[in-house]
Amino acid sequence: MPTLKRLAALLAAGALALTGCSLEDAATGDTVRVVIGYQSKTINTVTAGTLLRAQGYLEQRLARLTEDGGPAYEVEWQDYDTGAPITAQMVAEKIDIGSMGDYPLLINGSRTQANERSRTAFLSVTGYNARGALNMVVVPPDSPATGLPDLAGKKISASVGSAGHGTLVQALTRAGIDPVTGVEVLNQQPQVGASALESGQVSGLSQFVAWPGLLVFQDKAKLLYDGAELNVPTFHGVVARQNYTAQHPEVVDAFLQAQLDATEFLWREPLEAARIVAEGSQLPQEVVYLYNGPGGTSFDATLKPGLLAAFADDMRYLKSIGDFADLDTAVFADDRLIRAAFAARGRDYDAALADTTNRTSGSGNELWVDGQDTTQPAGNPTDLLRAVKSTRAQGKTIRAAYVVDSELGTRWFADKAVWLRDGDTYFAFTTPAAAGRYQQAHPAARAIGYDQAVAEVRS
């Protein structure tokens, strides 16, 4: 295993080759500063943001470098609602490392490449969903809409350039609706869009995690479209300015190592990680755990081929929203530094690259009883209903119940799901459209409310 100093030298050589900087250009004073842009409420980035910051993994690793004879390090964390302002600050050379979703990553690479000092590289993934379930469209609770076509001609709130907007563009296109002329997209920050939805100013909102889950959990919205219907991977990842990496390779390595620390902690302790993230983001812990619990987001730092293939295909999105410079995603995505981080801790990167299992293990069907610091897993939706029924019979309060969509595999709130009964078996779906597809193939299945399903299920 290489020493930290040897690893830093190796990283410096690679980074300097990318930027053309010399070692003299990388000279620093007594204190090395690193500015990190993150999104506290974006659950898929917590291993490079909220959780990482709260646990202090980066600062701890940098302190060890100082103890080994290196300079002092100063870390500044800047919190944003979306990836766009992080990219703007990286273009201005004011943020060194950032994390954001796949579509914002494309914009980041396109916007920063013109200037050698601001040019970035995509270094690692934070979290992903192989089908695209991390982005969703919600509507008001009393909306008559049952599918995306019902929003044709309506106003929809989205953060243009975000992962949620990218999903909306793809979904509308597949539904035969022109994403430019077929709807009116209001470019709004997530919290502004949430207020617009609640006040009736828009008919729908398309956003990334955790906004759809949060609004549904708060009974301020219902889910209309699950991004998993696209069956296209969506992910979030880490970018760093190449110039900064060339000057301070040990800092970028420490960041990637710290991201792996946070990832492995989340694998081991997903409920505790949800508590920490909830505290740092001011999101309800039940909402955080929806995404980082078993069957939720796959937290994995490797640059998987399937994700990169989808990433390259997403380039069409840039052309649909403005005049962006072409981006060679194969060059922008650089796995050399994350490979080195794996090697430094004795992990096999290629084995992890090939592994597509969700390391936060479990079926995704899960019951969380109020007052308990552990959860109760269930094998399938029917078993979950039995567990809910038993818990209610004992007079206990249920804090949250999670169920996996029977068609798309999306983890969702059981009491917000659309339920069908087919004989003695119960099926849960995130949207009416998904339930309708099942009923078309299984005419005997009938719709049933959640509470009725709990009452009827056989113990």
From TrEMBL:
| One Pfam family hit | NMT1
SUPFAM superfamilies on file: Periplasmic binding protein-like II (SSF53850)
Record's keyword annotation contains ATP-binding: no
- All residue ranges annotated as the SsuA/THI5-like domain in the record: 133-273
Leader sequence range is: 1-26
Please provide the record's keywords in A-Z order: Signal
Task: Output the PANTHER family linked to this UniProt entry.
Answer: ABC TRANSPORTER SUBSTRATE-BINDING PROTEIN, ALIPHATIC SULFONATES-BINDING PROTEIN-RELATED
Q: What is this protein called?
A: ABC transporter substrate-binding protein
